Amino acid sequence: MVAELSALQQIVNALTGLNGLPVVIVECVVTTIYTYFDTGTALGGFRISFVTDNIQGVMVVGLIILGAITVGVETHVERASVVSSDLLKASLLGWQLLYILPVAIITNDFFLSGFWMRTFASKTDRDLVIGTSIAAISVACILTLVGATGLLAAWSGAWPGDPPMSGSIAFFLLLEQLPAWVVGIILVMTVSLSTAAFDSLQSALVSTGSNDIFRNKLNFWWIRLAVIFVIFPVVVVALKSPSVLQVYLISDLLSASSIPVLAIGLNDKFFWWTGFEVVIGGLGGLMTVFIFGTIYYGNALDGANLMLLEQSLYVDDWSAFGKPSEISTKFHMTVR
After folding, report:
1. CA 292, CA 300: separation in Å to the nearest integer?
2. 266-270: Cβ within 8 A, 24+ apart
3. How far apart are CA 51 and CA 165, in angstroms?
4. DSSP string for residues in 13-50
5. pLDDT tier, 332 (very low <50, low <70, confident <90, very high otherwise)
6. Nearby residues of 144 by Cβ (< 8 Å), 6 or more positions away
7. pLDDT-based confidence at 41, cuts 50/70/90?
8. What is the pLDDT of residues 260-312, one digit of tens each?
9. 8 A C-beta contact, residue 10 and residue 166
10. 69-73: which pairs have CB atoms within 8 A and are 24 or more residues apart?
11. 28 has a pLDDT exceeding 80
12. Torsion of CA 269, 271, 272, 277, to 10 degrees
């Protein structure tokens, strides 16, 4: 939720130059109203999350098509810029990411309640396989197109911009160079996409709190009220967050430290594996990051900052690679 709101306010600021806070507040209010107040029809309540997911899919396709056409027509890249950037050459970070990103994304997906909601909502296993297969192919195509815009933004001079902007919104910095009417349409699509994603996160949080934490023993409205109060600090943190990527990386670090230990319990041979082992193993994974950072940098402060990803991924050393590596090492030691 923090990453979603942080990205929205940064995009609004990049495309319009305006403060993104009002847009963030309006989105939170609107999604809370139509998600929490079930009208008894398909127009409100939990069911609306599935409806907006379909809208989200249409908006993504529309945004990609519109962006591809307009960028292809309006964006100009000099060959000298491509050669001088060295972005197409092999780098230490590039090879490290072949390991870091799969570990981070796969383990983090275990914690995405929205995925599990749709998994259990499938009528049959066959429907689930078909749906996930279509989604995997679609996401691969979309990520390839969106990822390429980062290169185009750097080569065309749209990124980093003046003042320098985060590389996580390079796609929108590239689109900001387009005609005003295109930017307007893209802004509407972006808000729609963010709204569709945010209501799914709200619904998932309510479902998790009611079912997993309170075991359906607490009135549903108290859970909804608690989530509303949670949104306030979420907005504050989102506005203070320097980078969307850093928010995701912190959550990835937490998931990478706990999911491998949790997955052990899925094996019948480890029937004795309990929540205690999972909690201790997860904390041990985080501790290995701190120990690695302390040894690598030579002081405890930088070791602690490594747990918060203060330098993000874009560093010319082995610190970013060390985080998932240490967690993986701890995982193998735990199993033995």
Report:
1. 10
2. none
3. 34
4. HHHHSS-SHHHHHHHHHHHHHHHH---SSTTSTTHHHH
5. very low
6. none
7. very low
8. 888 888 888 888 888 888 888 888 888 888 888 888 888 888 888 888 777 76
9. yes
10. 70/175, 70/178, 70/179, 70/182, 71/149, 71/152, 71/174, 71/175, 71/178
11. yes
12. 90
Task: Give the C-alpha separation, 60 to 67, whole Å.
Answer: 10
Whole-model pTM over 0.85 = no
Q: Return the DSSP state at 169.
A: G
- Locate tokens 């056409």: which residue? 69
Token pair of 250 as six digits = 């912190």
Per-residue model confidence (pLDDT) at position 336: 46
For residue 267, give the 3-state DSSP assignment: coil
What SS3 class is residue 78? coil
**pLDDT at site 237:** 85
